[in-house]
Amino acid sequence: MFSFRPIFLVIGVLLATLGCAMMLPAIVDLAYNNPDWQVFAVSSLITVMVGVGLWIAARGAPTVLSLRQAFVLTVFAWVSLCAFGALPLYLSGVLPTFTDALFESMSGLTTTGATVITGLDTAPPGILFWRGLQQWLGGLGIIVMAIAVFPMLQVGGMQLFKAEAFDTPEKILPRATQISSVMTLIFIVFTGACFFAYLAAGMNAMDAIVHAMTTVATGGFSTRDASIGYFDSDAIEMVAITFMILGSLPFLLYVKVLQGRPDALILDSQVIGFFVLLVVFIAIVWLLVLLPAHDGEGSAFLLAAFNVVSIMTGTGYASDNYHAWGPSAAALFLVIMFIGGCAGSTSCGIKVFRFQVVAQDLAQHLNRIVYPNGIFVKRFNGRVLPDSVSAAVFSFLFLYIASFAALTGALALTGLDSVTALSGAATAISNVGPGLGEIIGPAGTFTDVNDVAKWLLTAGMLVGRLEIFTVLVLFLPQFWRV
Question: S-S: 101 plus which of 10, 86, 150, 340, CB 3.0-4.6 Å?
């Protein structure tokens, strides 16, 4: 019989940890003499009590999870953390309804970056810090899941990286927990370096720490309504570009670099593909869209580079309203939204490696047409690419497109115009943040979107962050049969 006790045990620990984390923004509010610290203290107490209660009720449960339990735990944990993470946002009165608070919390933990809050420039400091901390925790969590959980669940071709992490004779570290610990340390170091870089570029301490957390996590929450564009600083934009890219590369490869193997990062085919795509898209936006209408070549290049990197990595910062750059730019940014960064990073989207797997399959198929008697072996990073991975990738792509189409149709039925519905579905599924159009574009927010659409977008953010399969499998009747 399916047992929920191990699931409640883990969720209890996670909720208790989240509750303790809520005391950090309480301390920030206290430092600024803001009375909202009481909101965080109450939210923390509620969250910790529920978490400890679940842990006590499930004590003694087996700590080894079955595959079905792992699926359920993954989804239930994210939903629970987002629901309790919404408490401070709702109780503080910053957001008037729990629908808005849950939307904001889901956007934070999934590192989407879509927001329903206006007036960020005058928002309580604790709330600003909590939004950044949520994205930081979500980014860290997705890295660990991408390395340790998704390969086990064989989600969308992620099993391709299971051998790389754990099963090869030359194991990086003897245990998965050690790998996670080292990646957490790297994540903290990147965040600290980003913080000091922002300080040096001219940000104040609060802006720097929040933006450092959301940049490395490729989340995109800002302390300003105008996002990075508020600062109007080339130095700040270059810092953001650097750390958005660092957050979008596989963290497992950073571990290898620390072990004296820099070639593991430099020669990785996924990393090379990621940079090639970035260069191509930046060149297209710079040369064909911005340069003809821009006086300064240097500033036009930086404008193109910042916004392309921001959207492709799924960060969602904006330095300008790219929706106003014309229909060709809007169409290109819609395409970039879907691509994303590398697997095993904080980035989002379909992921570069899946496009490379598709290219390998197409090349093999074309070669077999031209040379029917030839033998052509698909490879990824020099290793043979199993057919099971190809099947998983194509299945993932089909479900990704189907989910996007279904969400677009559902949003249109709520009364949203076609541009808002289309780009809203894309930005939710791909966990990017801003969409296109006057309402949810880089110069707008999701505040004016109706409640039904907000619930649909909230579900879309979860489905996209958990790689489609993890959520949809729970709706199969045979999954729950003994």
Answer: 86
- Distance CA(128)–CA(221), nearest Å, equals 9
Picking from 240-244, 273-277, 342-346, which range would have the lowest pLDDT averaged per residue?
342-346
Q: Does 408 reside within a domain? A: yes
Q: Which pTM was predicted?
A: 0.91
Over range 79-105, report the average pLDDT: 95
User: Using one digit for the tens of pLDDT, what is the confidence trace for 53-74?
Assistant: 999 998 877 767 788 888 898 8
CB 240 within 8 A of CB 233: no
Residue 153 lies in a domain: no
Sign (positive/negative) of CA torsion 70, 72, 75, 79? negative
* CB contact at 8 A, 231 and 317: no
Please check the confidence at residue 323 and state whether its pLDDT lies above 70: yes
The whole-number average pLDDT for the span 366-394 is: 87
The pLDDT score that the predictor gives to residue 451 is 95
Rg (CA), the chain: 22
Q: What secondary structure does DSSP assign to 193-212, as a single string? A: HHHHHHHHHT--HHHHHHHH
Round to whole Å and give the CA distance between 308 and 300.
12
Q: How far apart are CA 233 and CA 220, in angstroms?
A: 17
Angle at 17 between CA 15 and CA 22, to 5 degrees: 95
> Which of the 8 DSSP states describes residue 125?
H
Pick the range with the lowest mean pLDDT from 39-43, 98-102, 253-257, 406-410: 253-257
Look at residues 401, 416, 398, 400 and name the one whose alpha carbon lies nearest to residue 456.
Answer: 416
Residue 374 and residue 12: Cα distance in Å, rounded? 56
Q: Helix axis angle, 327-339 relative to 418-429, nearest 10°? A: 30
Q: How many domains would you assign to the chain? A: 1
Instruction: Map tokens 């990147």 to a residue.
Output: 190
All residues at 6 or more sequence positions from 247 whose CB lies less than 8 Å from its CB, including other chains: 139, 190, 215, 216, 217, 218, 313, 315, 341, 345, 346, 347
Q: In DSSP terms, which residues pair with 29 in a beta bridge?
A: none
How do residues 352-369 score in pLDDT, each as one tens digit?
999 999 999 999 899 989
Tokens 């904001």 -> residue: 104
Could you identify the residue written with the tokens 């720097």? 208
Check: CB of residue 293 under 8 Å from CB of residue 329. Answer: no
471 belongs to a structural domain: yes
Backbone angles phi, psi at 265, to 5 degrees: -85, -45
Q: Which amino acid is at 276?
A: V
For 276-427, strand residue ranges (E) read 379-380, 383-384
Could you tell me the two tokens for 327?
């229909």
pLDDT at 274 over 50: yes
pLDDT at 1: 65
Query: Does residue 28 lie in a domain region?
Result: no
Residues 246, 440, 469, CA angle at the centre, nearest 5°?
A: 60
Q: By residue range, what is the domain housing residue 387?
A: 352-480
